Amino acid sequence: MASTQPPPTAQTATVLSDLIEGRGELFPCAHEIHGLKSGRVEAVEVLTRYRGASGLLEPVGPLLRAEGHSAQARAALDLRCLETALEALSRSRGRWDCAFVNLEPMTMEHPPFWTGIERWLRLPGLQSMRLVLELTESFSELDLEALQGHSRRLRDLGVRIAVDDLGSGVASLTHMARLAPDYIKADQSLVRLVHRRPYQAALLNALAHFARRMCVGFIAEGIETPEELQAVIDADVPWAQGYHFGEPMPMA
Predict the structure, then answer these.
(1) Which of 142, 139, 190, 143 shows the shortest CA–CA distance to 161?
(2) Rounded to whole angstroms, what are the CA distances from 133 to 50, 108, 158, 231?
């Protein structure tokens, strides 16, 4: 698994600048989401990678969250990641009916996001796809009224909303309740070693029943072992994602 620890700030500044200005290449990778009742792939999450100093593909997320970079720089990189993911989905020719793409919530505060998303949604192939923008764990830092306004505007465009990393913080639970997302994804801290921790299993089961009652899709992510998968199945979670099923694969 690629490291999620951010490299030194000086290095991230150079990498960030290269990626924003187009000197560095971004690679869209597909990570499958499995239906645990159907036993098949029912959706995909498109993750954006860059080639690190080691030559391996590294996640962009740590760059977006590294300290010392302006909000404008982070938003510019996030927009380039979003464009890369949506263009890759457009070229996939309907391979998936439903696709998740990460979005930093603060990016919605920048006008170029709204002009970009309206243009990208007109790409061939995206109109027939159920697109879900997955708000990362920093969504609770955004003003709640602004967040609700942004989500309404996205739904008017036909885009669905997912909340990522549910369970990683109390503040996110409050925002999640008011945001009323279409999908929620359990934080991997709730999944790790769940087969040995009955309290975690009970919490996953409670969240699964809550989601079903609210007609919200519920996905457990971060599954890495057969034991964790079985515990998630026993908790009545409908969808799952993780390295147990395979690593994110570059999209041709």
Answers:
(1) 139
(2) 20, 11, 11, 28
Query: What are the DSSP calls for 69-109, one per residue?
Result: --HHHHHHHHHHHHHHHHHHHHHTTTS-SEEEEEE-GGGGG
Q: pTM here?
A: 0.89
pLDDT at res. 171: 53
Full DSSP string of the chain:
----SPPPHHHHHHHHHHHHTTSS-EEEEEEEEEETTTTEEEEEEEEEEEE-TTSSEEESHHHHH-TT--HHHHHHHHHHHHHHHHHHHHHTTTS-SEEEEEE-GGGGGSHHHHHHHHHHTTSTTTTTSEEEEEE-GGGGGS-HHHHHHHHHHHHHTT-EEEEEEETS-HHHHHHHHHH--SEEEE-HHHHTTGGG-HHHHHHHHHHHHHHHHTT-EEEE----SHHHHHHHHHTT-SEE-STTT---EE--
Question: In 3-state terms, what secondary structure has residue 188?
Answer: helix
Tokens representing residue 45 in the block: 């999450």
Residue-level pLDDT at 199: 93
Residue 72 confidence (pLDDT): 87
Q: Domains in the chain, ordered, with CATH? A: 9-250 (3.20.20.450)
Structure-block tokens of residue 201: 């299993």
pLDDT, averaged in runs of 10, over the chain (252 residues): 46 75 87 95 95 87 76 89 94 87 92 95 84 80 83 94 75 74 90 92 93 94 95 96 94 82
Element of type H or E holding 41: strand 40-51
